[in-house]
Amino acid sequence: MSSIHRSTGLAALATAGLIAMASAASAQTAPCPTNALGITSPTACSCASGGGTGAVWGTNVYTADSNVCVAAAHAGVIGAGGGQILVTPGSGYQSYPGSTQNGITTSTWGSYDRSFTVSLVSMQTPACATMPAGADVYECSCPAGPYAGSAWGSGPYTNDSSICVAALHSGVLTAAGGTVRVLSAPGLQSYRGSEWNGASTMDYGPWSGSILFDRN
Known about the structure:
Elements: H1 3-26, E1 43-47, E2 58-59, E3 61-63, H2 68-75, E4 83-93, E5 100-101, E6 104-105, E7 112-120, E8 137-142, E9 157-158, H3 163-170, E10 178-186, E11 195-196, E12 199-200, E13 209-213
Antiparallel strand pairs: 1-4, 2-3, 3-7, 4-7, 5-6, 8-10, 9-13, 10-13, 11-12
């Protein structure tokens, strides 16, 4: 992969993280819509106590016409008291398996052309993208998967890897999302990709900096 492609991917991931944080800051008190059909970028909103009622299809990744707050409760992002969530729209999938989680049962659906995930809004914890330049330690949050982006290596990873992809691959994060603590490390002469924990990473040659994850 050329350095141009890697730089382009880095910029895109950084922009996505900034969009998510800006949306969270500007929409703290807005009530969540019934579904995510009108959401086109990461958007923060509030679910009332009780979470709401309505149909939901999927598990952690939901069809766009699912009830947003019920999906958030099913995913474990909010409890009975409600709260602020970040809704991230996504592309379509061939299937959305239902399940029972956190006292809520969702239904199974086949192909649907739009989806969304939900995560907890935290103004203290930025959305993960890639390791900020010059940072030794970086704490950030990943929404529920699946995760976009690429990662190189199997721990350490190149420091321009998608943090959420690398964190899932390393086992410090599950597809339900969460907060991770990223540590800066020296660059290596080579990075070997692999498939771990449902995530795939790629090989790469010499790179100037690496990242690891705090497992404490």
